[in-house]
C-alpha cells in the first residue's frame, strides 16, 4: 500500500486465511462427514454441513470486520532512546457497521485491541520501543482480527507514514558548564519576565516617563528612574567541544541531559555542534528544536 | 502461557454447552455413573479455577485422570469398539480437557470436542426434538467460540448468543444446498452400530401371551405411504414372519432359505414367476423403525424389491440382510389378489403338516370329530371358525395362564385369549387332520393419517393369523381372530378389547385419547410433521437422493451435479456476502432531525436551503443575513435544534423545535 495519512480498508488491501484453529475445525468437519457416511446418518451429515457452512460464512464476517474501517495517523510524541514512542492511530467507521476485537500494532507479539461499537471513532495509543536516536518510522502497521469465531484471520498492512523523533538517551553529566549554579541564582531567576525591577537611580531626561518612580516622587519630590535588569548575559552555550575525548553518542547523550536541565530553568541556551549552531533561546519550541538537532545529528553515519 | 484467562462470557457458554451435550447421554442412562461424576467434578473444578479458589490439577494428576479414564472405559464397556465406548471416550476427553485450559488453543480444543459430542446424540435419536436440542447446544458452543474472540469490554452473554444464532442462521441456506446435493456415499468401512440391541416388535417365536405383551406399547412400528387409495383396513395384513414349526406350545420359524433360492435385485428364481398375480395391485413405500431384526413387512404377495440387501424369500415375505439397525425405507408392489403354491412342493407340505407326536390329545380328538362331520377341508375350516364365533370364546389382552397342553387348555378350558391363542390353536386343529397350515405374524391394520397421507402402524397393531393350504387354491389366509372379534379387524384393537385394557400399562399415551377429537387432531398433525421429517430429512438416503435429483434435474451425470452444487453454494455465499457488506445508511433520522430537515426543505423553495456540510448554526446565520427581518426567529430555530441535539440533559423532544418553526413561519407570512 502506498503511504497515506488516512486509509480505508477495502477488498484490495485485506487478506484472509484460516488460522490453525480454523484448520482444526475443518478437520472436525471432515471427521463429521466421515461419520455421516459410515453411519449413513442424515442428521450427522446435516450437522457437518452446517458447521462447514459456518466455516465459510465466518470468512465473510471476518472480512467484514475490517472492511470499511478507516485508519488515520494521529499525533505522535517524541521519545528518548530506550523509551516507548507513543503513536496514536485514529480508527473510524463508515455508516452503521460495527467493528469488534480489532488488533493493531507494529509488532505481531504486542498488538493493541480496539473496538468500534457505539463510538464512531477510537483513538488507539500504540507504543513502540525505541533503541536508537534519530527519526523513527515504525513502518507498515498491522491491523488484524479473528472476530467473530477465530477460524479465520483477516489482516492488512497499512502504511500511515507515521514517524517520530527519538532523542538521544540522556546521560547524567553533572552540572551544566558555564551556567550559574542554582544556589547562587536563587529567587532572582524565578521571577517572571525578561525585564525585572532591579533598583532606582537618578533621572535622566532620556528616560521614558513610564519608568519614573512617581510614587517615590510624590513622597520625596526627587525624580528617580526605576532600573530594570535583564539576564541577557546569562546565556549558556552547549558545545560539542565541551566533551572532547568522548564518542559521538556519549557526547549527544550528555548534551541532551544538559538541555533537559536547562529547559527546567529560565536560562537561555544555545547549541553548537560541528557544522550547526542554534542561537540561545528559551521555551518549549526552542527545547524541541535543540533536541531535534541532537536527535538527527549525523544520523546514519 | 499459564496466565491465560478464558473470558467469562466464553467460559459460561462453554459450561452450559458442556452440560447440554452430556445431559441426553446421562438422561438415557447411556453413560456409566463414574463418567457422570467425572463430568460434574470437572465442571465444579473448572468454575473453582475461574473464581481463583482452586488451581488447575498438576501434570501427574492429569496423567492419572487420563489413564484412569481410558482404563475405566476399557473395563466398564468391555470393548473400545462400538458407539457407546466411543461416546464415553469422547465425553471423558472433553471434560478432562476442561482442566487443562492453559491457552486459547486448549479452549478451542474443548469447543471442537464439544461439537463432536453433540453429534453423537444423532447416533441414537433423530427425531425433531432431538435435532432442535442439538441445534441449541451447537449455538451455545458457537457462542463460546465467539466469546473467545471478543475483547473483554464487550462480553454480554445474551448478545454473544444472538450473534452465534445469526451466524448459524446465515449458514442454513448453504447447509441445505450441501445436504440435498452432496453425494451420499456408501460406508467406507463397516462400523459397529449401537450396541444397544433392543429388539422391538414382533419376534420369531410365538407362544401364548407374547403378542399381547407387545400391545402394551404405543411405539411406532412403521409407516406406509400408498400410491393411490389406501386399501381397506381388513386388507391390511402386514406379513412379517411365517412360523411353521410347533413344539412345546411355541411356534417358530423354519429357516426360509432352506426352501430354495431367494429372489433379489437381478435375481429371479423360477418360483417367483409361478406366483399367480390376479390383480388389485398396490404400490407403497414403508419406513420401518429400526428393529435389529431381519424381517420386513409387506402385504401379500410382494414383488421382489429392487434394492440391495432386501430379498423375497420362498414363503413370500421380505427379509433384510443385514438386520434393520437404522430406519429403513423400501418400496413394494403387492398384488392383493393372488394364488400361491397351487402345486405344493413336498418339503413345504411336510413342514406344514408336522406336529409333535404327543401332546394336546383333546384337541386332536376334537379335530378328528369336526373333520369327520365336515364335507371338505373348506367346510372344516369354516366349522372351526364357526366354533370360535358361536361358542363361549372371548377376546382379551389379559388371558389366563395355560398349562403344558396349551391348545387343549385353551380350546376346552379357558376359552379366552388373544390373537396368538386363536391363530396357534386354529393352525394346530388344521394340522391335526393333515391340512397344511402355518402361523403368520405381523401387524394388522394401522391408523390412516390423512394430513400426511400415510398409514401408521404401531406395536399394538401386532397380530397373528393363519394360512391354510387348500387343494386347488394354494395358500389361503384365515384369521380366526376375526371370528371372535370382528371389530379388531374392522377398526383396530382399541374397539375390540374392553375399556382399560387398551394401552392399560401406559398412563400417558397420546394414543389413549383417540376418542378426544382435538387431541387426535393435534397428534395426527405432529405425527405427519414427524413423518415428513423422517422421510425427507432423516430418511434422505442415497436412493432418495438419486430419485429426487432425477426428478428435479433429469438424468445428469455426477460432474454436472458437482458443478451445480458448487455454483449454488458459492452463489448463495456471494448473496450472503452482498447482504452483509452492503453499506448501511446512517441511523434513521430522529424526530428533531426530521423537523429540521422539513424546515430547510421549506426554505429551499425560496433558494435558502441548507447547503451540503453546513452546520445548523452557520445555516441559521446565513438565513439571518439573507433575511434580516427574520433573523431573530431563524436563529431561534437553529439554536433550538442545536440545543435539542447536542446539549446534555436536554431530552430530545421535537415539540420545542416545532414551536420555533411555527413562530418562524408565522413571522415569514406576516412580513411578506
Largest sheet of chain A, in brief, is: 5 strands, antiparallel
Number of domains of chain B: 4
Residue stretches of chain A low in confidence (pLDDT < 50, at least 5 long) are 182-194
Distance between the termini of chain B: 78 Å
Which regions of chain B contain 5 or more consecutive residues with pLDDT less than 50? none
* Gross geometry of chain A: elongated
Sheet with the most strands: spatial strand order of chain B: 11-7-2-17-16
Radius of gyration of chain B: 37 Å
Structural class of chain B: alpha+beta
Order of helices and strands of chain A, N to C?
EEHHEEEEEEEEEEHHEHEEHEEH
Number of helices of chain A: 7
What's the mean pLDDT score of chain B? 85
Averaged pLDDT of chain A? 83
Q: What structural category do the secondary elements of chain A indicate?
A: alpha+beta
Structure, explained:
The complex is a heterodimer of chains A (301) and B (672). Chain A has helices at residues 20-39, 42-64, 182-185, 187-190, 214-220, 248-263, 283-296, and strands at 6-8, 15-18, 70-77, 79-80, 84-92, 99-105, 112-116, 121-129, 134-136, 141-145, 152-158, 164-167, 196-202, 224-229, 235-239, 268-273, 276-281. Chain A has 301 residues and is an alpha+beta fold. In chain A, the strands form 5 sheets. Chain A has a 5-stranded antiparallel beta sheet. Chain A has a 4-stranded antiparallel beta sheet with strand order 1-3-5-8, with no helix packed on it. In chain A, strand 16 and strand 17 form a beta hairpin. In chain A, helix 1 runs antiparallel to helix 2 and helix 6 (248-263) runs antiparallel to helix 7. The longest helix of chain A is centred in the first third of the chain and has 23 residues, at 42-64. By secondary structure, chain B is α+β, with helices and mostly antiparallel strands. Chain B has 4 domains: 8-149, no CATH class; 199-497, no CATH class; 542-581; 591-671, no CATH class. Helix content of chain B is 49%, strand content 13%. Chain B has 24 helices and 19 strands. In chain B, the strands form 6 sheets. Chain B has a 5-stranded antiparallel beta sheet with strand order 11-7-2-17-16. A 5-stranded antiparallel beta sheet of chain B has the order 8-3-15-18-19. In chain B, a hairpin with a 2-residue loop joins strand 4 (245-247) and strand 5 (250-252). The radius of gyration of chain B is 37 Å and the shape is elongated. The N and C termini of chain B lie far apart (78 Å). In chain B, 38% of the residues are buried. Chains A and B meet through helix 1, helix 2 and strand 7 of A and helix 5, helix 6, helix 7 and helix 20 of B.
